[in-house]
Design a protein that fits this description.
It is built from seven helices and 14 strands. By secondary structure, it is an alpha+beta fold. α2 crosses α3.
Length: 267
Amino acid sequence: MKNILSFFILLFTVNSFCQIRILSWNLENFGKSKTESDLSFTANIIQEYDIIAIQEVVAGYGGAQSITKLAGILNKKGTKWDYSISNPTSSSSYKRERYAFLWKVSKVSLQGNTWLEKKYNLEIDREPYFATFKIDKKTITLVNFHAITKSRQPETEIKYFKFLPQEYSNLNLIFVGDFNCPQSHTVFNPLKKMGYFPVFQNQKTTLKQKCKDDNCLASEFDNILYKTTTINYINSGVVSFYKKFNSLKEARKISDHIPIWFEFSIK
């Protein structure tokens, strides 16, 4: 009986270790404008997850520094975190941004170097940021992305994503971020035909200026796409952080997007 119990405890421990939760969040204009209170609030939201993908980190002074501060706050909460910040993207100065990843070192480890995708940097304003993580003995590569705004037709950038699985055929890609475009758009069809499935459907992720009858979300922009043949879906959801504030105006000091998360294991 004792041996059976030990086996199930071991099995539970192994399975728990292999299950990973990714959180993706466009932290609007994340830089020196964020106060210590803002950073502490953000850390309290994201500390429950294992890998954090952040978009819209300020390219100039304050962006990288704020990520470093955020990691410092997380490390004071009893769990060891590490982080990586991209170089500024190649787009014109007013649209340039950085991306960032933060992760729990007890759950995953970074493999090799992170990189901005340079092949399509002329076609994509803010080229995606790649990072490969080792989970147990397997790996995933996150493709962190922030598309141009809806008025500028983000589908003209997203259409190049269909080339990335072949470009990185040896990597297990998971696309995360703010696409400024709903997953129902036909531009995602080539990825879907390759077996990449959107975690969220009909899930709005941006904040309105004001709530109307408890309806506070505006657009279906943020998502995560994973390959169903290599990834097991376990759970997913959004974090309605704005409900902790008295008004959307206050909440929007943190971001005009809500975080999305995806729990999975690797096949």
